[in-house]
């Protein structure tokens, strides 16, 4: 039977490269490639997969939200995060939402195969770059291992999206039917929650996750 793998990544070339890397392992079968989180959920409703190689930066529905949805709807399907993003926010979010591992893009074929097999055998795999990021993050910040700092409410997510669209506090307040003071409070709380120092950090967070 082998291990049936779906690649969730916006880049076609990357998917082609992964197919080539796994060509020498006939039991590791890439059965399809989807380019968005919504497409992946739709695919899983009809198809059969054992593992998803999941990028964090997916359009429409990012890898973190997609992994969260899969945990409820397709708990039998393993998720191995596969991303160029190495910040602790993304690594920890993926693990909290149910990913069994985090592999940084650019890993060689041997590491890719090792990560897949480790996850499929019930283990957890973190590539060296991901491990270092987590270690540094918990050394230099007050972030908690239980992940409570990372979860964003729907309102907070909407505020970040509007900030990334260069909306002013007044414009965001009008759009969300709240006061400017409330938006200022959201901004301050979000910067603390995500460990960023400026609006530019919030914008980068939104861009990295393909929210804008």
Secondary structure layout plus pairing:
Blueprint: E1 3-8, H1 12-21, E2 28-34, H2 37-46, E3 51-54, H3 63-73, E4 78-83, H4 88-97, E5 101-104, H5 109-120, E6 125-126, H6 128-140, H7 154-164, H8 169-176, H9 180-193, H10 199-208
Parallel strand pairs: 1-2, 1-3, 3-4, 4-5, 5-6
Helix pairs in contact: 2-3, 3-4, 7-10, 8-9
Q: CATH fold name of the largest domain, please?
A: Rossmann fold
State the CATH architecture of the largest domain.
Answer: 3-Layer(aba) Sandwich
Strand order of the largest sheet: 2-1-3-4-5-6
CATH superfamily of the largest domain: Response regulator
| Overall helicity | 40-55%
Put the structure in a nutshell.
The chain has 212 residues and is α/β, with parallel strands linked by helices.
Q: What are its keywords?
A:
Arc Repressor Mutant, subunit A, 212 residues, Rossmann fold, alpha/beta, 10 helices, 6-stranded parallel β-sheet, elongated, single chain
Structural commentary:
- The chain has 212 residues and is an alpha/beta fold.
- The chain has 2 domains: 3-140, Rossmann fold; 154-208, Arc Repressor Mutant, subunit A (Orthogonal Bundle), CATH 1.10.10.
- The chain contains 10 helices and 6 strands, in the order βαβαβαβαβαβααααα.
- The protein has helices at residues 12-21, 37-46, 63-73, 88-97, 109-120, 128-140, 154-164, 169-176, 180-193, 199-208; strands at residues 3-8, 28-34, 51-54, 78-83, 101-104, 125-126.
- Strands 2-1-3-4-5-6 form a 6-stranded parallel β-sheet, sandwiched between helices.
- The longest helix is centred in the C-terminal third of the chain and has 14 residues, at 180-193.
- It is elongated and about 60 Å long.
- Residues 139-149 have low confidence and may be disordered.
């Amino acid at each position: 039977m082998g291990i049936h793998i779906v690649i969730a990544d916006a880049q076609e070339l990357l998917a082609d490269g992964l197919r080539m890397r796994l060509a020498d392992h006939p039991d590791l079968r890439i059965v399809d490639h989807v380019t968005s989180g919504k497409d992946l959920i739709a695919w899983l409703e009809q198809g059969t997969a054992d593992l998803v190689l999941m990028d964090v930066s997916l359009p429409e529905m990012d890898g973190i939200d997609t992994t969260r949805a899969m945990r409820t709807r397709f708990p039998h399907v393993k998720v191995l995060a596969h991303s160029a993003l190495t910040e602790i926010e993304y690594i920890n979010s993926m693990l909290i939402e149910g990913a069994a591992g985090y592999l940084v893009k650019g890993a060689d074929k041997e590491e890719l195969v090792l990560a897949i097999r480790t996850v499929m055998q019930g283990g957890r795999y973190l590539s060296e770059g991901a491990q270092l990021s987590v270690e540094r993050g918990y050394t230099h910040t007050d972030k908690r291992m239980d992940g409570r700092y990372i979860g964003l409410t729907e309102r907070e997510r909407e505020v970040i999206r509007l900030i990334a669209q260069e909306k002013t506090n007044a414009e965001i307040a009008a759009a969300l039917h709240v006061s400017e003071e409330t938006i200022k409070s959201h901004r301050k709380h979000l910067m603390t929650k995500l460990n960023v120092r400026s609006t530019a950090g919030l914008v980068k967070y939104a861009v990295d996750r393909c929210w804008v």
